[in-house]
Amino acid sequence: MLNPQLNKHGELQHLLTIEGLKKSHIDHILDTASSFVGISDREVKKVPLMRGKSVFNLFFENSTRTRTTFEIASKRLSADVINLNIQASSTTKGESLLDTIDNLSAMHADMFVVRHSQSGAPYLIAKHLNESGQSHVHVVNAGDGRHAHPTQGLLDMYTIRHYKKDFTNLRVAIVGDILHSRVARSDIHALTTLGVPEVRAIGPHTLLPGGLEQMGVRLFTNMDEGLKDVDVIIMLRLQNERMSGALLPSAQEYFKSYGLTPERLALAKPDAIVMHPGPMNRGVEIDSAVADGSQAVILPQVTFGIAVRMAVMSILAGTHG
Q: From CA 244, how far away is CA 123, in angstroms rounded?
């Protein structure tokens, strides 16, 4: 079956998931992002690569941070950005998702950035565009259900490459609610594709999904054992609704077993970096002393996220010249 993300030449047409992408696709995105980062790591250049193009942010699920970084990235590329509050719009009036897409396409949309609580919604939109002769319109998945969050996975890879240079000798630990995390899924696919020899998943049994070992991931329910000698620690946000459910006892208990404290960080390599997709729950998954410490690269991740999203959008927009 053809990968719905790629055109007939094997080039990226949509970005729906990291799964199934070749290493060359990921490297191309990271290299392009690198060209947008200024001399200082905190600066992202403005380039007119998408002047005259329209990017529609379709967020069926709230996420101020992701939407804002896509908006900034679009503006740095000189694109026109249209933010739609879908909760208050046509789909609530009974118009179907694909009718909404057709109406927006008729307004000369060039790209849809889609976030949706249902896994697979961006696929449905991309498939519809391809089949209805609108393959010039590109779709970027900004997070769908529990399935994938490819630009977060890519910005995590950019951050690791920036600080560690080479993927082929790293131990990377992903810690927390892996069961519900689309970020964890995207990270695992990207890390294995880029040749990381050891990926570890650390969390309570109730939050470790089945099938991870088939992906080559080592599982740990003991945080201290899992962090021993790792180079990179990716902390995941614990969502409050998990705390009130039957999966976990309490925030305090969780922090006692799986919170990243300075003492636990000391078990990793001395030059290990600490990452977090944000927003952080301080005192639940991460201690403030670690979040604000010298090994945390959480704020640079945000800057790199703008450059990576610029790279994805400019590559997609350039697929058809």
A: 32
